Amino acid sequence: MIAVLRRRLRAGNGDDGFTLTELLVTVFVLGILLAGVQTTLIFTQRTVGQQSIRIDQEQQTRLAMEAITKTLRTAVLPSQLNGTCSSCNLAAFIQGTPTKVQFYANINNDANVIGPSQVSYVVNSSNQLVETIQAPNAHAASDYNYQYCTPGPGCVVATRVLAYNIVPGSTIFTYYDQAGTSLGTGTLNASDLALVDSMDVVVSVSDSAASKVPPTTFTARVSLPNADAIAQPSPSP
User: Are the CB atoms for 129 and 203 separated by under 8 Å?
Assistant: First the structure.
């Protein structure tokens, strides 16, 4: 077809034009070429979009896992830091469910001047994995009667979202005693909280709009050394 067009063009001053058949064939060929280009562009855009979602899921999952496991390893009984407050739990862990954990952590506490912070990780109703850190109320360095204000106006609590689009219904935290026996899949009671010696942390992120992109899941087993040994004040992690 292209050769025919060239011959027509070389004809120069000829009065002959293109036939309707030639024009239809030309339009048909161009249509096929454009359709192929469009299909390639759509496929490329879809591939790039899915790869971007995979990268975002992996970054969220990795950062969340690193933050959680790093802080969990600092879990400590307030008594190990000379804590004498009657309101403090006897265990390092305050709450434990498949989607929420709250515990005392020896962070931001150089020379044990501040005291243990209350840290929680929870999946909220928007499927966000949220970290909350609350230091004890201000007190003298030698006063180990740690007290914590009720979150609200005037009560400083640091909160940040570690990951979005957590897979709904997924189990984030699994708890084990010193023998490695699971403490169950429900909410831990007071006696179970005192037995927590290690945990499995599973963070699974899936973009709700990415039906063709599988969830990104990271898993880690976290040992809790402070559950078995006397903790000494150490630099903040």
Answer: yes
Tens-digit pLDDT profile for residues 196-221: 999 999 999 988 665 678 888 999 99
What lies within 8 Å, CB to CB, of 105 at 6+ separation is: 71, 72, 74, 75, 76, 116, 117, 118, 119, 133
CA distance 42 to 49: 10
Provide the whole-model pTM.
0.75
Q: Which helix (H) or strand (E) holds 161?
A: strand 158-163
Q: How far apart are CA 217 and CA 207, in angstroms?
A: 12
User: Please, what is the angle between helix 20-72 and helix 2-10, to 10°?
Assistant: 130
Which run of H or of E encompasses 104? strand 100-105
Closest CA to 188 of 87, 94, 74, 68: 94
